[in-house]
Design goal:
This protein is an all-alpha fold. The chain has ten helices and no strands. The mean pLDDT is about 95.
């Protein structure tokens, strides 16, 4: 038996509920350790995954896919969630193109620093909002939304930003609260999967 992937019981692959897990497998047939950690009581997993995909992967998402992955990575970085940061940080790096710049951006997220050569003002405003929602949601005020509007975000884009950040605050608490680890699983989405989602988002 290998190293446990969580602090709770995780069923062997052969014992997973096919009705739940068949639709959640990666292209290579594997299942994320995060999802495997639900195996002893998977009642909420299908709905949680559907919400995640609707928010991040929906073709009509107002914000670019790359931006969504950066916001997801921010939540993981601020909460010390190595699992989510590894996966979504890698997705962001692959989508961004300039890998060195992307990794530098991720490093800055942890410190709430947004140098102008890496973060344009609109993106900086979004990340300041995301940091506040993650660290101190009780301090948010209407003025925080007004600041996003001042930087050109529509209400539809503000809602999307809120949903991405809030959804990942759910996931990192599942991961950190159950001690879910990466183990040997492949990091990030396969390049062709990322391309397919991005093309759908662009209407290509």
């Amino acid at each position: 038996m290998g190293t446990p992937i969580a602090w709770i019981e995780v069923l062997d692959d052969g014992d997973l509920d096919d009705a739940v897990y068949d639709g959640l497998k990666r292209p290579d047939g594997s299942v994320h350790n995060l999802y495997r950690a639900y195996s002893s009581w998977p009642a909420g997993l299908t709905a949680a995954d559907a919400l995640y995909r609707a928010i991040l992967h929906s073709p009509d998402g107002p914000l670019p896919f790359e931006t969504c992955e950066l916001v997801a990575t921010q939540v993981a970085a601020l909460t010390g969630c190595a699992y989510a940061q590894a996966h979504h940080g890698e997705n962001f790096v692959r989508l961004h193109g300039d890998h060195a710049a992307a990794r530098s951006m991720i490093d800055h997220l942890r410190r709430d620093t947004y140098p102008g050569d890496l973060f344009e003002p609109r993106l900086k405003a979004m990340l300041i909002y995301g940091a506040k929602l993650t660290r101190a949601p009780e301090t948010l005020e209407q003025a925080d939304v007004a600041e996003l509007r001042r930087h050109g975000l529509s209400d539809k884009e503000i809602l999307h930003l809120n949903q991405v950040s809030a959804n990942f605050n759910y996931w990192v608490r599942v991961i950190n609260g159950l001690g879910i680890t990466l183990g040997e699983e492949e990091i990030g989405m396969a390049p062709d999967t990322l391309e397919r989602i991005e093309n759908a988002r662009r209407g290509a």
